[in-house]
């Protein structure tokens, strides 16, 4: 074994299960990737629009195009994640994102802004925020899978809450260009810990999911080339193939649930700051503070994970959609800072669940062997919803001068999503698994 191979194979020893270290290291990549996420990007859209004299709908379409781009490449990323693992995919994400963020700090035209924002978002979302980190959680955890997925789902809104404060305050004090450049440099630096820590599966480093079973010679099997890896105990859950999943009614109902619910949620999240600024006469910093509190309450995703273990993820999604419907209706009554914060708390609690519970359903229904590919097939629906929400919200404002139509549409969409997921019951096992 060469010195280079030894260096690449080295990993830090931990007093706890190594899967947790990978998850939390991945959170660093999620942090920088949220710079171009709708909830953070939307928080500074007013500053960009004022300086560059661009319409809000132009910025909204840019954000939406990045999300749609991530949806187009997600199926391919999912296959790569299943075949080769996340170790090199995640560092590629930080390198591309870092370059795009730094370049955004020097743009002078809308097409330059569009190009770098779209590339950065399209690459970073599946590699650093959604698909690949969730695949890591499913591969490294079994009994504690819902908890691990809840943690991975927590990182995006939690780091968004931090990023909103950083980027908005730096943007106000030193300009939005400077904030993009700083975070671009941070993204490039974070490539190093990702390369060192991240691995594909626990079996590749002599472990088992959850770290529950010791490894000895009796639990090892030979691989081609003479290497030996631990044998996973016989699983009770059936691992579906991607082709089998696409034939089920449940998958398509889950996909439609994602499209409808994400459209409703992203429209509200992306336009929350300007809505509060104009409808409740709050300053940009006050409105960004409410958005930050709302996203910080993504901590509630841990509670949703616990509830999913007790009541099933599907029933929890129905509860989250019902709560989002009520919270969105309340948005029409907001007139001051106190009521705005009350909405922010309620919205944070329910949106934390809707973001990650759908991916818990996928893991529960279809297993882990093709989870990256299956998640990649769902991503175009999620991305479509994110882009539609951001685009429709800004267009509603540009056409009517109000966000009322957006809010009413969001109320109806959340109610429809609750009905769709209610119909998405767990499918029967594929025939080849029962013979």
How does this structure look, described?
This protein has 435 residues and is mostly helical. It has one domain: MFS general substrate transporter like domains (Growth Hormone, Chain: A). The protein contains 20 helices and 2 strands. A two-stranded antiparallel ribbon has the order 1-2. Strand 1 (220-222) and strand 2 form a beta hairpin.
Rounded to an integer, what's the Rg over CA atoms?
Answer: 22 Å
Q: What percent of residues are in strands?
A: under 5%
- Look at the structure and give the mean pLDDT: 84
Looking at the structure, what is the overall shape? globular
Total of DSSP H or I helical runs spanning 4+ residues: 20
Task: Flag low-confidence runs.
Answer: 214-220, 223-228, 231-236
CATH superfamily: MFS general substrate transporter like domains
Which class best fits the helix and strand makeup?
mainly alpha
Oligomer: single chain
Number of strands: 2
- The order of strands across the largest sheet is 1-2
CATH T-level topology: Growth Hormone, Chain: A
CATH class: Mainly Alpha
The percentage helix is over 70%
Describe the structure in brief.
The protein has 20 helices and 2 strands.
